[in-house]
Amino acid sequence: MSVFEAYSQYYDLLYRDKNYAAEADYVRKLIERERPGSQTVLDLGCGTGRHDFLLAEHGYRVTGVDMSADMLKVAGAEREKRLAAGGPPPPDFAQGDVRTVRLGQRFDVVVSLFHVMSYQTSNADLLAAFTTLREHVAPGGLVLFDAWYGPTVLTDRPVVRIKRLQGEGFDVTRLAEPVLHPNENVVDVNYQILITDRQSLRTQELRETHRMRYLFVPEVQQMLERVGLTLDRACEFTTDGALGFATWNALFVARAP
After folding, report:
1. Cβ density class 179-201: b for 16+ within 10 Å, e for less
2. Structural domain for 57, as ranges
3. What mean pLDDT do residues 227-232 have?
4. Exposure of 29 by Cβ count < 10 A (0-12 exposed, 13-18 middle, 19+ buried)?
5. Radius of gyration over alpha carbons of the chain, in Å?
6. pLDDT score, position 8
7. Does 175 share its domain with 243?
8. Helix (H/G/I), strand (E/B), else coil: 26
9. In CATH, what number is assigned to the domain containing residue 37?
10. Least confident of 11-25, 51-65, 119-133, 196-210
């Protein structure tokens, strides 16, 4: 069983310290600055849709795509709640793989956040994902995605991390043990997740390895050019600061002709 499948119901708990509101606001301001007048947004690898609902609240027509049916089930339940409550139209959601999905529609802005591109560990997969970006962005449109930044990964090496959280009736402990493969530009993050029901004291253990690719600006620029996109700039995600040896999360801003 995939970790994403098994802990989709715990996903928002695991990332409750992630400031989705600040990230969505940063993306919104960037869109307003770089591509004013944009109305439609596609989010590739949307997870449970947290960014998408926030962007929709600002009037964007948002479509989220994810390959996990369990993640989309959570997003769909929230969408139904918001439809019933009225207010701005909530996002639409569709299932698909970032490498192969084709919606037959183009958007003013295409985003892919939370290191989705770092999951594309081979050149073929990354090029396929970039092709999907290109196929869905309107002429003159904006493309935004973040990824692990190579110079920082090699300088500030990944370390073992433990996260402990309490949900409603259960406890979650997640151990992340990274293994760096410098000749492949990837890090294997080996997860052990323990989910304990506080009433029965029964514990479910899940294990999975997430292989994450770290990227460098020249290779991103070259591969974007291969699919017909132009890299405008790369900066630190949420700060717009220059990339440096302390920047784990790089944002890449590209455009369609």
Report:
1. eeeeeebbbbbeeebebbeeeee
2. 3-150+214-255
3. 98
4. exposed
5. 18
6. 58
7. no
8. helix
9. 3.40.50.150
10. 11-25
pLDDT in the model for residue 7: 58
- For residue 247, pLDDT over 80 is answered with yes
The verdict on 135 and 208 lying in the same domain is no
What residues have CB less than 8 Å from 155, skipping those under 6 apart? 245
Output the pLDDT for position 150: 98
Alpha-carbon span 127 to 114, nearest angstrom: 18
Count how many residues are written for the chain: 257
In angstroms, the CA 255 to CA 112 distance is 14
Residue indicated by tokens 């997860």: 191
Q: What is the pLDDT of residues 72-112, one digit of tens each?
A: 999 999 999 999 998 899 999 999 999 999 999 999 999 99
Q: Are residues 199 and 227 in the same domain?
A: no
Number of domains the chain contains: 2
pLDDT digits (tens, 9 = 90+) for 121-133: 999 999 999 999 9
Residue 20 and residue 134 in one domain: yes
Residue 99 near residue 130, CB atoms below 8 Å: no
- In 45-169, the DSSP E strands lie at 61-66, 92-95, 107-112, 137-149, 161-166
Asked if pLDDT for residue 4 goes beyond 80, the answer is no
Dihedral sign, CA of 134, 137, 141, 143?
negative
- Asked if residue 136 and residue 58 are part of one domain, the reply reads yes
As a whole number of angstroms, the distance between CA 185 and CA 214 comes to 6
DSSP, res 173: E
Residues 205 and 96 in one domain: no
